[in-house]
Amino acid sequence: MAHQHTGLDKAHVLTEALPYIQRFAGKTLVVKYGGNAMTDPELESSFARDIVLLKTVGLNPVVVHGGGPQVDALLKRLGQVSDRIDGMRVTDKETMEVVEMVLGGSVNKSIVNLINKHGGRAIGLTGKDANLIHAKKLLMDKQNEDGTTTKIDLGMVGEVAGVKTDVLEMFTQSDFIPVIAPLGVDEHGDTYNINADLVAGKVAEALSAEKLILLTNITGVLDENKNLLTGLSTKEVDRLIETGVIYGGMIPKVGCALDAVKGGVISAHIVDGRVPHATLLEVFTDHGVGTLISNKATK
User: Fold this and answer.
1) Is 59 helix (H, G, I), strand (E, B) or coil?
2) Cα(188)–Cα(199) distance, rounded to whole angstroms?
3) What are phi and psi of 139, to 5 degrees?
4) Of 27, 117, 276, 284, which has the maximum CB count within 10 A?
5) What domains sit in the chain, N to C, each tagged with a CATH number?
6) Beta bridge partners of 143
């Protein structure tokens, strides 16, 4: 009997997925890939299979990736020290060369290779390609003890000033899956390192994506009692930040999801990338595995 059950389970899963596949056919999904999902071989292959499956059933996945740990590892090997201020890397010219080498080179190509190995047709891009990501220097607000803020110059660290979507649309309209390294360029031709969550959010906005999916190393957004909040409206998120339920490293992530939804993305998802096939489960099942943020009041 057991064999028959697994067959039925599969059928059940597929029928549950069908309405979602129908609803999202032809729609664009931007997936931010990083953290644990990027360093554990089993999670890497489940991620790649998810992306290929999304493309195969008619959705248009666009991948944006990080690579902080990989950058740190190479800097260490080269004997270069990079400081962090409030978790943001101070990036001088020498550090930037390594960042570009790792993000635009080895990490980007390994993800492209991974997706291709699972039957997709991935193409690696950085924000420099076809002027995809226009950057401007990011000046970070640092809180002083007396409550005032100081603007801190982190060097070649940028924010997104604009996204040119024509090159991405060329890929999403065909069989190709774009894989984007979070580097941008300003009007003087200088390269900037940009936080990958921010890039994913801005790319999702520019493409009027159906969904922005941020794969993270945490379960999602938790309430006061550490229960997962599966659905939140933008209003509820604002309230949770004010009351301190969402704090620390979650604030920029949630802020990024919030901005994307306010900028026209239908829904943003903060998803536990440590769960195998997290992307598929979030997109194609009734319950999902993360926190969904949308403009609609949630049920």
Assistant:
1) coil
2) 20
3) -105, 120
4) 284
5) 23-294 (3.40.1160.10)
6) 149
